[in-house]
């Protein structure tokens, strides 16, 4: 049983002018075995939350904490975060020319597991995981993220979940830009990952459609840099029919 606890998190983004406060006191606790959806209108600060936890240098934590079983995540290096069992898709480099996917994944696995997986087993594991995700075999030899389509990047995220099996995963808009078939493959991957019942997921999304495939235990509405309401899956159903108007006072353009 592990706990990821976000407490009164304030984050400013460093812009060319003065730093601008985006997160205004976020409180959220995710326990292993739970899937939490964070839903909110565009610009409400959802990605800022993910970047801040990933330690992105543009996002400055001005107060509050993020603790994994009482250990301060914000003081860990990116590598330590991974070893602690925290998976943040965006902590990984955007593009790494010259480094093949299979080498990249093997070194990530080495870092998380504390020892290098045996090559023969590893090749099998990767093959299996790729076939689960309908990823064509040639993918393993391509450079990390180089020329990946949006859908390929998302599959790559799920491939990492499959292989690294982190204790906690923060997935930001894993559903966006996917066609119906890809959405199903990616959702199935997330469900496979949570199936053992010991993983914690923070699923960040603007749209409700992914929640037809991944059923969250808890739903949080995010507006103007904080959680403004929390509930069960029924809250997502309400958002599906009524949108975010009740929480923002603003009508959002239809997506
Ligand atoms: P969401 O993911 O909910 O759409 P974001 O966290 O991306 O929201 O953005 C929240 C606010 O912070 C927006 O007003 C956005 O313009 C601003 N912001 C986020 N990142 C940056 C950045 N790197 N530079 C300048 N402004 C940013
Ligand atoms: Mg956005
Ligand atoms: Mg975003």
UniProtKB/TrEMBL annotation:
A GO molecular function annotation here is: ATP binding
> Which SUPFAM superfamilies does the record cross-reference, listed alphabetically?
P-loop containing nucleoside triphosphate hydrolases (SSF52540)
Tell me the ranges covered by the ABC transporter domain, including all copies: 4-249
Q: Decide whether keyword ATP-binding is in the record.
A: yes
Keyword hit for Transferase: no
Q: Which UniProt keywords apply?
A: ATP-binding, Nucleotide-binding
Output this protein's name: Fe-S cluster assembly ATPase SufC
- Supply the source organism for this entry: Allosaccharopolyspora coralli
Record gene name: sufC
């Amino acid at each position: 049983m592990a706990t990821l606890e976000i407490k009164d998190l304030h984050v400013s983004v460093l812009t060319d002018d003065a730093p601008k406060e985006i997160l205004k006191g976020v409180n959220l606790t995710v326990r292993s075995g739970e899937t939490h959806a964070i839903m909110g209108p565009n610009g409400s600060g959802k990605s800022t939350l993910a970047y801040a936890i990933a330690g992105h240098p543009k996002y400055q934590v001005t107060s509050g904490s993020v603790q994994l079983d009482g250990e301060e995540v914000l003081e860990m290096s990116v590598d330590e975060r991974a070893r602690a069992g925290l998976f943040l898709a965006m902590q990984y480099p955007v593009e790494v020319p010259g480094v093949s996917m299979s080498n990249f994944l093997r070194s990530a696995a080495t870092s998380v597991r504390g020892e290098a997986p045996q090559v023969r087993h590893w090749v099998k594991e990767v093959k299996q995981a790729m076939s689960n995700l309908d990823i064509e075999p040639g993918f393993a030899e391509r450079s990390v993220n180089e020329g990946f389509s949006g859908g390929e990047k998302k599959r790559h995220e799920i491939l990492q979940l499959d292989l690294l099996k982190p204790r906690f995963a923060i997935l930001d808009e894993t559903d966006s830009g996917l066609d119906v078939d890809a959405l199903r493959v990616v959702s199935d991957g997330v469900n496979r990952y949570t199936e053992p019942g010991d993983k914690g997921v923070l699923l960040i999304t603007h749209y409700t459609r992914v929640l037809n495939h991944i059923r969250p235990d808890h739903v949080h509405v995010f507006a103007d840099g904080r959680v403004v309401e929390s509930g069960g899956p029924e809250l997502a159903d309400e958002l599906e029919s009524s949108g975010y108007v009740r929480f923002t006072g603003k009508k959002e353009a239809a997506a």
